[in-house]
TrEMBL record:
Pfam families: CTE_SPB4, DEAD, Helicase_C. RNA helicase. This is ATP-dependent RNA helicase. It is found in: Nucleus, Nucleolus.
């Protein structure tokens, strides 16, 4: 009984519940996501941005992936602009945000972008959902990097479209992107040219640094870009200096936008932890002051702002040669995209460095731990000043900024900064910190023409920029000492500048070059002398232009003397003999009639006796040029036969086909053929005789040299040292007597064939024309059969013994003795 008992608990236990299928699990997950979205939407609706005050991201009604991405990126606290703008954007309001530089505006629009697409359950099949536009490539790259950090928990696809890469490669990926960070021009290019790409489903449009995007530089591109976007969308605009123009808001189709600004509650528009100063220094001392400042702050991170890319290049190259003792970098809009990104990364990672840059990095770029911002050139307005100094003192860190002002700029610029509530104080440079680099720049420009060229371009670009500035209360070109400024750049003289009055800077940059070349009533030559503007009806040949050229090269003064010298004489005058260049053909004075000699230089000349049917008329410089050409004079004379000239300058007629009637008049074709063959045969025989005679002379010279060498060897003299005066020389009379005796022996009859005359010359000719044996081509490998064959050939050669090859038949007793001695020794 006991053996058959079993535990009662096993029989009473309930069976496990069945596992849900894949379809059921998928439905449960979808229901859970819908419930979470409903809860999230309810939190957003209940959150009142005006009454509720949020201090951290956790206080905001954000989705779980967004909150997790912010936490992983170590973003916890909210800045003022974030606390006020994000709740409004989450409620689908259009927002105009204005805040100080470094206040966190990037997160203020990236967080609403991610949450809006998340609540809409956006997928890659829905197309483009968010478009973020930036004015510069560097700022677009920075926005994209922040988007990747905080959006790492989302499943959206994001892309960067800024140019500098292949348009085709970008177009292949655009159709799969949900979020795009771009620059206006490149994005418009894709919307116009990329097939299958559209923005019809766009949910939200963001404009970072909106005031810069809405100005004249991007107005056309933005207007064309907005036409591709749907009207029902949300728009966010952020900048440190926001625009409230009704026209701009209407262009972007904003609907009751909410204006968020943190400037009004603050005492000034720049961060309180930013120390701002300005220095009054004349224009020609700015580079000296800058170099002294850099030498005094070698353990700092500095950004130096200049007004143009040409100035950036010149200052960078000059200071690089001076080697101040700190790593130098330069950045401007003309550089390739790869170089710009590399320089940006290098300066970001550097601990101590100096970056020379234009306003391309003045907006939005977040360089960490920048100690100094130096503005060598005065900014065009207060907004540009605010953006420039905003590269330092970011996120509660301290920073310092220095503005260089010319005495003519001080009053106007300081007054405008005070109107914007920007605290700035005047400071002076210590005398012991001043350094002069004028002489060093002059030496470098003298030794390096490329640096001198950059200096000239930098001077011109700065002068034009000052001339085209609209604010004439600050920028006064007439009060600047341009000559001293040119000398401070190391230039030997002040470059000339042509100004275009009443035109905008950007219009001039984009204007065609054809209209800019003749914009003034008078033109300048290379020496700075004004030339009268020529009439439209006046025709100038290339020779006229050649004669007008001056100061072009070292031969320019001699061009006029090819035809007419300075005294008005002809090219055939006696004074031309001493000139550097001489004409190929000169006409004698006898060939010119008396009237043409007495005529003035520019009068029409008539020359008789040149062989033509009519007199030769010289009424232009081109006709005077004809007198120096044999070919053109023959054409003028009416020579019916084409001529070619040999090396000696003699003319020969070219064979031409005659007409059939003329050919028949010359006689029967067979007689003409025989006559032609006989004439050509006679020419060939004459040439053959000359060639044989030349060949005999060469043989005699070779034979004489060989005999001289043999004689020297018999006398015990090394032929290679025959010119040494210390060695004994052969008696010339003895050598002549020996040669006469040998000639007498050769004249005697012999039993063999006669070696004199043509047979001897023929044999020697065959010996000279005999080619040397060809070398076998080398191989990288060799078969076994070839190896055995080569071995057998070497053995057979050994069995044959020695073979003597005579270069020539022995002719003297000494030759026979030498041959016999060689055979006995062998």
């Amino acid at each position: 009984m006991a053996a058959n008992t079993r535990p009662a608990s096993r029989s009473s236990k309930a069976p496990p519940p069945p596992k849900p299928s894949k379809t059921e699990r998928r439905q449960q997950k979808r229901k859970q996501e819908v419930d979470e979205l409903q809860v999230l939407q309810k939190r957003v609706d209940e959150f009142d941005p005006k009454s509720t005050e949020a201090k951290t991201f956790a206080d905001l009604p954000l989705s779980q992936p967004t909150a997790a991405g912010l936490q992983a990126s170590h973003f916890t606290s909210l800045t003022d602009i974030q606390a006020r703008a994000i709740p409004l954007a989450l409620h689908n309001h259009d927002v105009l945000g204005a805040a100080k530089t470094g206040s966190g505006k990037t997160l203020a629009f990236l967080v609403p972008v991610l949450d809006k697409l998340y609540r809409a359950q956006w997928t890659e099949f829905d197309g483009l959902g968010a478009l973020i536009i930036s004015p510069t490539r560097e700022l677009a790259v920075q926005i994209f990097e922040v988007l990747r950090k905080i959006g790492r928990k989302h499943a959206f696809s994001a892309g960067l479209v800024i140019g500098g890469k292949s348009l085709k490669e970008e177009a292949e990926r655009l159709s799969r992107m949900n979020i795009l960070v771009c620059t206006p021009g490149r994005m418009l290019q894709h919307l116009d040219q990329t097939a299958g790409f559209d923005a019809d489903n766009l949910q939200i449009l963001v404009l970072d640094e909106a005031d810069r995007i809405m100005d004249m530089g991007f107005q056309t591109a933005v207007d064309a870009l907005v036409e591709h976007l749907p009207k029902t969308r949300q728009t966010l605009m952020f900048s440190a200096t926001q625009s409230k123009k009704v026209s701009d808001l209407a262009r972007l189709s904003l609907k009751d936008p909410e204006y968020v600004s943190v400037h009004e509650s603050a005492s000034h528009a720049t961060p309180s932890n930013l120390q701002q100063n300005y220095i009054v220094t004349p224009l020609h001392e700015k580079l000296d002051t800058l170099y002294g400042f850099i030498k005094a702050n070698l353990k700092s991170k500095i950004i130096v702002f200049l007004s143009s890319g040409k100035q950036v290049r010149f200052v960078y190259e000059s200071f690089r040669h001076l080697q101040p003792g700190i790593p130098l970098l330069h950045l401007h809009g003309r550089q390739k995209q790869i170089a710009r990104l590399e320089i940006t990364n290098r300066f970001t990672a550097a601990k101590h460095s100096c970056l020379f840059a234009t306003d391309v990095v003045a907006r939005g770029i977040d360089f960490p731990a920048v100690d100094w911002v130096i503005q060598v050139d005065c900014p065009e307005d207060t907004d540009t000043y605010i953006h420039r100094v905003g590269r330092t003192a970011r996120y509660q860190s301290n920073g310092r900024a220095v503005l260089f002002l010319d005495p003519s700029e001080e009053e106007g610029m300081v007054k405008k900064l005070e109107q914007k509530k920007i605290p700035i104080h005047k400071v002076h440079v210590k005398d012991k910190k001043k350094r002069s680099i004028k002489n060093s720049l002059q030496n470098m420009c003298f030794q390096n023409p490329d640096l001198k060229y950059l200096g000239q371009k930098a001077f011109i670009s700065y002068a034009r920029a000052i001339h085209l500035q609209k604010d004439k209360d600050v920028f006064k070109l007439n009060e600047l000492d341009l000559d001293a400024f040119s000398a401070s750049l190391g230039l030997p003289g002040t470059p000339q500048i042509r100004f275009h009055k009443g035109e905008d800077v950007k219009k001039i940059k984009n204007a065609p070059r054809q209209g800019m070349s003749s914009g003034s009533e008078s033109e300048m030559d290379m020496d700075g002398v004004k030339k009268p503007r020529r009439k439209k009806d006046e025709v100038r040949t290339k020779y006229d232009k050649m004669f007008e050229r001056t100061n072009q090269d070292v031969l320019s003064s001699h061009y006029n003397k090819l035809v007419l010298d300075g005294d008005g004489k002809g090219a055939g005058s006696d004074d031309d003999d001493a000139e550097f260049l001489s004409v190929k053909r000169r006409l004698n004075d006898d060939e010119l009639d008396e009237e043409s000699k007495k005529a003035p230089v520019n009068a029409v000349k008539v020359i008789e006796g040149l062989g033509g049917k009519e007199p030769f008329v010289v009424d232009s410089k081109r006709r005077e040029k004809v007198l120096q050409s044999k070919k053109k004079l023959l054409k003028f004379k009416g020579n019916p036969t084409k001529m070619v000239y040999d090396d000696e300058g003699n003319a020969h007629p070219v064979y031409e086909l005659a007409n059939e009637d003329d050919f028949k008049q010359e006689g029967p074709a067979e007689e003409l053929r025989k006559r032609f063959v006989e004439g050509e045969s006679a020419k060939v025989k004459e040439a053959d005789v000359d060639d044989k005679q030349l060949l005999r002379e060469r043989r005699r010279e070779k034979k004489a040299k060989r005999k001289a060498r043999e004689a020297m060897e018999r006398a015990g003299i090394d032929p290679d040292k025959a010119d040494d005066p210390a060695l004994p020389q052969l008696d010339a009379e003895e050598d002549v007597d020996r040669g006469a005796a040998l000639d007498f022996l050769r004249s005697l009859p012999t039993d063999g064939a006669d070696r004199r005359g043509e047979e001897e010359s023929g044999r020697e000719e065959e010996e000279e024309e005999e080619e040397p044996p060809r070398k076998k081509a080398k191989k990288w490998f060799q078969d076994d059969d070839e190896d055995e064959q080569n071995t057998s050939e070497r053995k057979s050669k050994k069995k044959r013994g020695k073979v003597f090859e005579l270069e020539q038949e022995p002719e003297t007793l000494e030759d026979l003795e030498a041959l016999a001695t060689g055979l006995l020794d062998g």
